[in-house]
Amino acid sequence: MPEPYNFNDFSIGSQSFLTTAATDLQGHAPLALMKGTTKYDLDRTKLPSNGQGRLNPVSGVLNLTYHYKVHPATGGYLGLTVPTVDFGQQLITAAPGDYPIAKLTSSLVVTNQNPTNKTFQLTAQATKPLTNTAGQELTGALGYELSDGTIAELSSDTVVYANTNATTSQTSFNVSDGWWKANSPQTGENQISGPRLHITDANRPAIKAGKYTGEITWTVTNGL
After folding, report:
1. In what order do the strands lie in the sheet with 38-42?
2. Cβ atoms of residues 102 and 86 within 8 Å
3. Exposed e or buried b for every residue in 78-114, given b needs 16+ CB within 10 A?
């Protein structure tokens, strides 16, 4: 029976199909590629018409062509400032769950000064697992709560935010403001999205005493 697939999926939570399992039939082409020192952006106006459909299991062959264009050298400043996220102190016997931010230093802010197109996407990926001072790792523990309440493990580049309003006069977008309920203190019970300490049955046995640090890499790409 033909399997449904969608490789033109750019919704929040979608991942690049270059970083997911071959059996995962959802995702999108990389938003940007580098060749030498030249950056290329995915041309979303020329997506393949067969990028979504049903895969014939008999042939198992699907040819897709994606087009890229040279990243413009002009068009306004596109920048990103990132915060330090602290999940506080947790018990070694912590139960499986998704623990909220205890302290946020600075904010996650995208600055887009493009005069004609303010659209952009923000992706996140856990590029260094939580590791204590003894070098013991807690894999899969850096998660992100998406707008629909699901938790992305950030094992690959994952879309976590998008601005689709090309003509807005806004130039500064505070993404982390949306991690908490509107007009509420930035406390754990008020967190509704954003980074989470993701403890599972799989990684819980690896919890050891010590201070853990990790790294989330944020990438902003303009022109959806």
Report:
1. 32-35, 38-42, 68-70
2. yes
3. bebeebebebeeeeeeeeeebbbbeebeeebbbebeb
Backbone angles phi, psi at 13, to 5 degrees: 100, -15
Q: Assess contact for 32 and 71: CB atoms under 8 A.
A: yes
Strands 84-86 and 120-131: unpaired
Distance, in Å, from the CA atom of 111 to the CA atom of 76, rounded to the nearest integer, reads: 10
What is the strand order of the sheet 172-174 is part of? Answer: 78-81, 109-112, 172-174
Per-residue pLDDT reduced to its tens digit, 5-52: 898 888 888 888 888 787 788 888 888 888 887 788 888 888 999 989
| Best CA proximity match to 25, nearest among 48, 46, 5, 51 | 5
Better-predicted residue by pLDDT, 28 or 61: 28
The 10s digit of each residue's pLDDT in 94-149 is 999 999 999 999 999 999 888 888 899 999 999 999 999 999 999 999 999 999 99
Global pTM reads 0.74
